[in-house]
Write a structure and sequence with these properties.
With about 325 residues, the protein is an alpha/beta fold. It has 13 helices and nine strands. InterPro entries: Cys_Synth/Cystath_Beta-Synth (IPR050214), Ser/Thr_deHydtase_PyrdxlP-BS (IPR000634), Thr_synthase-like (IPR004450), TrpB-like_PALP (IPR001926), TrpB-like_PALP_sf (IPR036052).
C-alpha cells in the first residue's frame, strides 16, 4: 500500500517542492487537491478557499539542539509559521472556510450569515484573512490588551468585525459559544473538527519530508490543546494506511504561566479531575489559555502515543 500511495499524491507534492511545478497556479492546484483528498474528498474544487498554505520548511536545527537541549544532535524544526498569516492555523482554516463556502451556496433552512471566533491573536488573524478571500463576513472576540499589535492589525485590515472585551480568552470563548448557539454564525475555533482535519496535514508533511521514516519524538506547543490531537490524527492516519508502521511519541509544551494540562499530567494520576486555571501573563500570549476546550482530545492523543507534557519558562 505504501508504494501505491507514494505514486499518487505524496510524489506529486514532492515534485512541486522540488521545483518541477511550472508556476504558482500549478502549486495552488496541488495544495487544493491535497486538502481535498485528505480531509474533504467530496467537496467541489470551486468551493475551496486557499491562500498558498502547507508545504512549510522542515530544517535541521543541530546547533539549537546541541546548545539548548542537552546535546541533542538530530533536532528538526517544522516551521509552520511560513504561511500567509504567519500561523500554522492556516492549515485548518482553509478546510473550515471551504466547507462554510460550500454550505453558504447550499439551500439551508438556516443560512450561515458569517463566521466567528474567540482568539488570543492567531485564530482571529487567520479567520479574517480566509473569510476576506471568500467574501464572507467574520466577527472576532479578543481579550483587551492581551494580544500583540501584529495580531490585532490583521483582522482589522481584513475587514472583520473586531470586539475587544474586558475579559481573558476563556471569557471570550464562552461568549462566542453563546453567540453561535443563538445566531447563524459558524464557530471557527478549534473546537470545530474541520480545523483539526486541516491541521493534521502538518504531521503528514513531516513523514513525507522524512521519506516516511518516523521520528522518535514530536514536540507540539500550544494552549487550547487541539493541535496535538490534529498531529496524532495525521500520524495515525498514515499508520492505518500502511505508510508507516508506528506513530511518534508526542510531547505537549505549555507556557509555565498557562499550563493546566501540565499540572493535570504531572500532579494527577489516571487523567481524572482536570482543573482549569486563570492563565497568567506570558510572553507567549497566543497560548495564554487556562481553560482549553480540547483537553479531552489532547488526553486521547497523549495516551495513544505514550506522550508527555512539559512546561517552559
Amino acid at each position: 500500500m505504501r508504494e501505491d500511495f507514494s505514486r499518487k499524491m505524496p510524489d506529486l507534492l514532492c515534485q512541486v517542492a522540488g521545483g518541477e511545478a511550472a508556476d504558482n497556479e500549478a502549486l495552488q492546484i496541488v495544495r487544493k487537491l491535497r486538502k481535498k483528498e485528505f480531509v474533504l474528498p467530496e467537496i467541489d474544487s470551486d468551493h475551496i478557499v486557499s491562500l498558498f498554505e502547507s508545504n512549510s520548511n522542515l530544517f535541521w536545527a543541530e546547533r539549537l539542539g546541541r546548545e539548548h537541549l542537552d546535546g541533542m544532535n538530530d533536532l528538526w524544526v517544522k516551521h509552520c509559521g511560513i504561511s500567509h498569516t504567519g500561523s500554522f492555523k492556516d492549515l485548518g482554516m482553509t478546510v473550515l472556510v471551504s466547507q462554510v463556502n460550500r454550505l453558504r451556496r447550499a439551500l439551508l433552512s438556516r443560512p450561515i450569515a458569517g463566521d466567528g471566533c474567540a482568539s488570543t491573536g492567531d485564530t482571529s488573524a487567520v479567520l479574517s484573512a480566509y473569510y476576506a478571500a471568500a467574501g464572507i463576513p467574520a466577527i472576532v472576540f479578543l481579550p483587551a490588551d492581551r494580544i500583540s499589535l501584529q495580531q490585532l492589525i490583521q483582522p482589522i485590515a481584513n475587514g472583520a468585525t473586531v470586539l475587544s472585551l474586558d475579559t481573558d480568552f476563556d471569557g471570550c470563548m464562552r461568549l462566542i459559544w453563546e453567540v453561535t448557539a443563538e445566531l447563524p454564525i459558524y464557530l471557527a475555533n478549534s473546537l470545530n473538527s474541520l480545523r483539526l482535519e486541516g491541521q493534521k496535514t502538518a504531521a503528514i508533511e513531516i513523514l513525507q519530508q522524512f521519506h516516511w521514516q518516523v521520528p522518535d519524538w514530536v514536540i507540539v506547543p500550544g494552549g487550547n490543546l487541539g493541535n496535538i490531537y490534529a498531529f496524532y490524527k495525521g500520524f495515525e492516519m498514515c499508520r492505518v494506511l500502511g505508510l508507516v508502521d508506528r506513530v511518534p511519541r508526542l510531547v505537549y509544551a505549555q507556557a509555565a504561566n498557562a499550563n493546566p494540562l501540565y499540572r493535570y499530567y504531572k500532579f494527577k494520576s489516571g487523567w481524572t479531575d482536570f482543573q482549569p486555571q486563570v492563565a497568567e501573563t506570558t510572553f507567549a500570549s497566543a497560548i495564554q489559555i487556562g481553560d482549553p476546550v480540547s483537553v479531552d482530545r489532547a488526553v486521547v492523543a497523549l495516551k495513544a502515543t505514550d506522550g508527555i507534557v512539559e512546561e517552559a519558562t
